[in-house]
Write a structure and sequence with these properties.
Elements: H1 9-61, E1 75-79, E2 85-88, H2 90-93, H3 95-102, E3 111-115, E4 118-130, H4 151-161, E5 162-172, H5 174-221, H6 240-289, H7 296-326, E6 333-336, H8 337-351, E7 355-361, E8 365-368, H9 370-387, E9 391-399, E10 402-409, H10 435-438, H11 443-453, E11 457-462, E12 468-475
Parallel strand pairs: 7-9
Antiparallel strand pairs: 1-2, 1-5, 3-4, 4-5, 6-8, 9-10, 10-12, 11-12
Helix pairs in contact: 1-5, 6-7, 7-11, 8-9, 9-11
């Protein structure tokens, strides 16, 4: 067995279980010994009460009963009205013992006393004896019928010649004390053994219960940042440890997916940035080698276009990073979505690339960051323009507690199985498009992040124009 560290869960559980068991056993043992002692005292007291009744009947039946003629260990004493011992065995003659016996109250419950260092249970009761203490007065019991005139004289004689005395019977508690002592000794031996057994069993059981945790710890310790594909073992115990292993594996899966996404993101970003850099370098080399073949105006236009493309990619990456970091919009104010859409409609009409239908725009007000919401609206409109053949339609309206924006195009649409993937970074479904027309693949990813931090949603569906419909839904600010 591995040595226990005092700070470990196994050690703490063992000590706690041992302490609780020890306290419970000690308290139980003390209570048991007390009840046992009280029980044996009561039993001996019951026997003493029976003996007291028997001696009282004997005294009433035979006035010559000799209380000192008793070879048993019991102590029997007759105490006169004055408190003096008038009859009894040798213990009654001892002055110290006599004082203790005189103190036993008549008719009270059996009580424990000490005589010469030995424990006894004593009981006492009143008995009628003759005035000289020789026994009960039975005169006139059989002849009173012949002379009724003597009745008053007999009663007067009873008042004068008889009185009440106390009979005390005490039984030793030696055997009872021996029984209690044996029980106490057995408990003194059994309780420590039982506590030690509980400690051992608890340490073994807790150790086996925590063994899967140790396996999980060793596996996690061996998982490095370079390889997050490993998983911890999942015990089939259907308990909290299994839940911990399942949760740990789910966390590792998320970390692994995040790492794969990060690597793919870095690779895609590098590829997207390399393309305009390659174009710039190619034009620069041709212009340097053959100045007459590359007009200055063409070189300047290429540099401006590729520089603008690089700037757009970098700004998009920075925006995504900021959205990932803060998790929610930091600036919140009322924004009119209809104004944003009308501004985008004017911009697209000015460009003259496609026809714009803005007849479906109505009042819709939300709360959010105006810059972020404007960027989200622009991205979905630009996406529709990029995929439309000749026409797009934009609309905004309030539907109950929500404000909804629909942006439709008459392009080829988005297949249902690809409608979630289009929101991933650097995803462009139509690989046959030219790089200029296809965009960087970050626009819709930015839209999803903006909608997430703004408390809204974005979805792709089928457009009445035949292409794709992008729907943005926000909580209404007027709700």
């Amino acid at each position: 067995m591995r040595r226990l560290r005092l700070s470990s869960v196994r050690a703490r559980a063992t000590m706690a279980a041992t302490a609780v068991t020890a306290i419970a056993l000690v308290i139980g043992s003390v209570v048991f010994v007390g009840l046992l002692s009280r029980s044996v005292v009561d039993n001996v007291g019951a026997v003493a009460s029976q003996d007291l009744a028997q001696y009282a009947r004997s005294l009433e039946a035979d006035d010559r009963t000799d209380l000192s003629d008793d070879d048993d260990d019991r102590v029997v004493c007759l105490i006169g009205p004055t408190g003096a011992v008038t009859d009894g065995d040798g213990e009654c003659a001892d002055e110290t013992s006599a004082r203790v016996l005189v103190g036993v109250e008549s008719g009270a419950a059996p009580e424990a006393i000490s005589l010469d260092g030995d424990r006894y249970v004593a009981v006492a009761d009143e008995v009628s004896v003759s005035a000289d203490g020789s026994g009960p007065d039975t005169r006139g019991d059989d002849d009173s019928d012949d002379d009724t005139a003597d009745t008053d004289d007999d009663n007067e004689n009873d008042d004068v010649d008889s009185d009440d005395a106390r009979l005390v019977v005490a039984l030793p508690l030696d055997e009872a004390d021996d029984a209690v002592g044996v029980a106490t000794t057995l408990l003194a031996v059994a309780v420590p053994l039982l506590v030690a057994f509980v400690a051992l069993v608890t340490a073994i059981v807790v150790g086996r219960a925590l063994r899967p945790v140790e396996r999980i710890r060793r596996r996690v310790e061996g998982i490095g940042a370079s390889d997050l594909s490993q998983r911890v073992p999942e015990p089939s115990t259907a308990d909290e440890i299994q839940s911990l292993a399942v949760t740990m594996n789910a966390m590792l899966e998320r970390l692994d997916a995040s790492q794969r996404s990060q690597r793919r993101f870095v690779s895609d970003a590098s590829h997207e940035l390399r393309s305009p850099l390659a174009v710039l370098r190619q034009y620069a080399e041709v212009a340097a080698a053959h100045p007459d073949r590359v007009p200055t105006s063409e070189l300047a236009a290429t540099v401006r276009a590729e520089g603008s493309r690089m700037q757009d990619i970098v700004e998009s990456l920075l925006l995504l990073t900021r959205l990932d970091e803060r998790g929610r919009s930091e600036r919140t104010e009322r924004v009119d979505l209809d104004d944003l859409l009308l501004a985008e409609a004017r911009r697209v009409r000015a460009a003259g690339a496609v026809e714009v239908d803005a007849s479906g725009i109505s009042g819709a007000r939300v709360s959010g960051d105006p810059a972020l919401l404007g960027r989200a609206v622009r991205n979905v409109v630009d996406n529709a323009v990029r995929h439309a053949r000749s026409r797009i339609a934009v609309m905004a309206r309030t539907e109950g507690a929500r404000c909804v924006i629909h942006v439709d195009d008459d392009g080829s649409g988005i297949p249902p199985e690809e409608r979630e993937r289009v929101f991933e970074r650097f995803v462009r479904l139509d690989e046959g498009r030219s790089r200029d027309a296809g965009g960087s693949g970050l626009g819709l990813a930015i839209v999803r992040h903006i909608m997430s931090v703004s408390g809204g949603t974005v979805a792709v569906g089928d457009s009445p124009l035949g292409g794709a419909r992008l729907t943005l839904a926000f909580p209404s600010a007027d709700d």
